């Protein structure tokens, strides 16, 4: 019986159970014996060849499921309300970024606000899913550990403090000490993933280039990730238009990047003049 149940869907399972119940416990069957026929004139009706007994419990289950599904389905008005709320949030976010770049923002994508929002955003922009945030944390920590000599200069000898912000003892919501902090992690993200990272906010508007990797033909022009810090407590994804203006790089990048990576700034110099 168990083997049969595993191989069949819930409909077949319900019918099978009903059949077994009728055989083992005939007095509990849901089908009543037909009343005694009264002889009538005329030809008798032909008996149906395929008469399947009805399992009331199954159909009650189906009806309940359908009603539950209808209840869960959002109404048109609620969908419109959600869309309007999203547009309102986007407008609110956009006003927190520099005026010169607002016209070049094509879209703003919100992420889960759980203390991992910055890592959610980076994971999604890399083409993964938001749920890969823990992997991003782990990879950034590993990158810093492998190149402590480089990052100790950039972080002003605060390497362990930055690494501690990446390490978590549990999944789920994180405290402020575990938030993604820029500019420090901006250098690591750009270097590890060989991308240009653009950060926008009320206070920190900066372009991060890799510290020790030069641009390649494959990544040039296709390697720009943009994030925004809004409401003083949350990161979001930003989609910028092609050839949009970019905020400047930091003096630290100029001081500590390798000679081969300076070609990044040369290639994008025109877009940082505004």
From TrEMBL:
<feature type="region of interest" description="Disordered">
    <location>
        <begin position="70"/>
        <end position="89"/>
    </location>
</feature>
<feature type="region of interest" description="Disordered">
    <location>
        <begin position="35"/>
        <end position="56"/>
    </location>
</feature>
<feature type="compositionally biased region" description="Low complexity">
    <location>
        <begin position="73"/>
        <end position="89"/>
    </location>
</feature>
<protein>
    <submittedName>
        <fullName>Uncharacterized protein LOC105851351</fullName>
    </submittedName>
</protein>
């Amino acid at each position: 019986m168990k083997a049969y149940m595993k191989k069949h869907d819930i409909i077949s399972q319900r019918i099978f159970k009903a059949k077994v119940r009728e055989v083992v416990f005939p007095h509990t069957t849901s089908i009543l014996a037909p009343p005694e026929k009264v002889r009538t004139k005329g030809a008798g009706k032909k008996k149906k060849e395929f008469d399947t007994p009805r399992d009331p419990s199954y159909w009650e289950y189906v009806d309940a499921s359908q009603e539950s599904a209808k209840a869960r389905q959002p109404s048109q008005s609620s969908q419109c309300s959600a869309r309007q709320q999203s547009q309102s949030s986007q407008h609110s976010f956009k006003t927190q970024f520099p005026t010169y770049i607002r016209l070049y923002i094509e879209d703003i994508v919100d992420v889960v606000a759980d203390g991992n929002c910055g890592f959610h955003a980076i994971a999604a922009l890399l083409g993964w899913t938001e749920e890969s945030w823990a992997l991003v944390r782990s990879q950034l920590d590993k990158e810093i550990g492998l190149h402590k000599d480089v990052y100790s200069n950039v972080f002003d000898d605060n390497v362990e403090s930055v690494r501690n912000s990446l390490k978590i003892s549990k999944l789920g919501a994180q405290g402020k000490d575990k938030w993604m902090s820029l500019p420090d992690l901006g250098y690591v993200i750009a270097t590890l993933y060989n991308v240009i990272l653009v950060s926008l906010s009320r206070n920190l508007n900066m372009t991060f280039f890799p510290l020790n990797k030069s641009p390649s033909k494959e990544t040039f022009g296709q390697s720009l990730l943009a994030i925004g810090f809004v409401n003083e407590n949350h990161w979001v994804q930003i989609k910028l238009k092609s050839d949009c203006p970019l905020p400047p790089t930091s003096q630290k990048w100029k001081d500590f990047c390798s000679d081969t990576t300076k070609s990044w700034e040369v290639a994008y110099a025109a877009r940082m003049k505004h």
